[in-house]
Design a protein that fits this description.
14 helices
Length: 335
């Protein structure tokens, strides 16, 4: 189980090659060996080490033999997030070492990358001031752009972490639901009629109390109802890419939820908890109710869809940007 290696590995490898070329082409001016206490030679060496680390992570993630490492990385995000952080930090270092005119050529592109940042961000305001001055030879430009780019990259990295954490929570919730459904399915083995999805002599398929067979059929039809909803959503979903397969787990969690709502709905139907719905008169009616209650899981999973859609959006929502501003300290300013 890997984090879509054929997609993100190819992207990372291509970006690595571009950054390596840019680093090799970077000219370190002998008349400016340092800036604000930072030695350009050490900065260049650090960028090279970062690219080498990214290369090692990409190579390890692509090895079929290292499946245990890849599985741990798939859960912890070590390979993808580590590669992303190394490439971003190397790009920032290369930009800081660039000549002002070279940095000026990237100004508009970096402004697009930094578009999710709040307009009040002082780094963004500084770059706009430098742009208004129309001075491509300003020696402050590379470092100011590097600080802005680092802030934009910090948002991207934090969104990747949140996407992985949300996917992992969905997986844990799905496992808990499956264990709960297993317990519910096995309950009739110990107590006859423990899960009354139908009434003996009225709408059960035989004269016996509802057992494992009846409960299992109701669960299966609940999964079928949830699958109908999932299929309808798949037709509406765009082609948004996520390194952790979040859209897949967003939809998979609905299948056990559909089984749970089907069983719960049939147990509560025609009771004080759900008096508005009349109990079905036949086993076929029970099966129809199970499908309908399976579709009804969308009322419980709507918040999951809303959260996942925010994480999958090309740019974070304004309220999410405010939360992302509290990113870890290592994502703060370069200078």
């Amino acid at each position: 189980m890997a984090e879509r290696p054929n997609t993100w590995l190819h992207r990372a490898q291509a970006r690595l090659c571009v950054l390596q070329v840019e680093l090799d082409a970077t000219y370190l001016p002998p008349d400016r060996p340092t800036r604000d206490g930072v030695r350009y030679a050490q900065l260049q060496h650090g960028a090279g080490c970062l690219l080498e680390t990214a290369q090692n992570l990409i190579r390890k993630a692509g090895e079929r033999q290292a499946w245990r490492w890849r599985l741990r990385s798939w859960w912890s995000g070590y390979a993808y997030e580590g590669t992303l952080a190394c490439l971003h930090a190397a790009d920032v270092a290369i930009l800081a070492m660039s000549r002002p005119r070279r940095a000026w050529q990237r100004l508009d592109t970096i402004l697009v990358t930094a578009r999710p940042l709040p307009r009040s961000d002082p780094r963004l305001a500084r770059i706009k001031t430098l742009k208004d001055q129309q001075n491509p030879d300003d020696v402050c430009l590379p470092w100011a752009l590097a600080a802005l780019l680092q802030a934009a990259y910090a948002l991207q990295e934090e969104r990747a972490v949140r996407s992985r954490n949300f996917r992992n929570r969905l997986i844990r919730a799905g496992l808990v639901l499956c264990l709960l459904l297993t317990a519910v399915l096995c309950a009739p083995l110990w107590v006859d009629g423990a899960v009354p999805v139908c009434e003996t002599g009225r709408n059960c398929p035989d004269a016996l109390a509802p057992g494992v067979r009846e409960v299992g059929v109701v669960m299966l039809l609940g999964v079928l109802g949830a699958a109908l909803h999932v299929a309808a959503r798949l037709q509406q979903m765009g082609g948004s890419w996520n390194p952790y397969g979040l859209p897949l787990f967003q939809e998979l969690i609905k299948l056990p939820t559909g089984a749970l709502t089907a069983v719960t709905g049939l147990v509560l139907v025609d009771t004080a908890a759900l008096p508005v719905i009349r109990a079905p008169d036949s086993w076929r009616g029970v099966m129809a109710y199970a499908v309908v209650f399976g579709v009804a899981q969308l009322a419980l999973t709507r918040t999951i869809d809303q959260r996942a859609e925010k994480l999958l959006a090309a740019e974070p929502a304004p309220d999410e940007v405010k939360q992302l501003e509290k990113a870890p300290e290592e994502h703060q300013d370069l200078m």
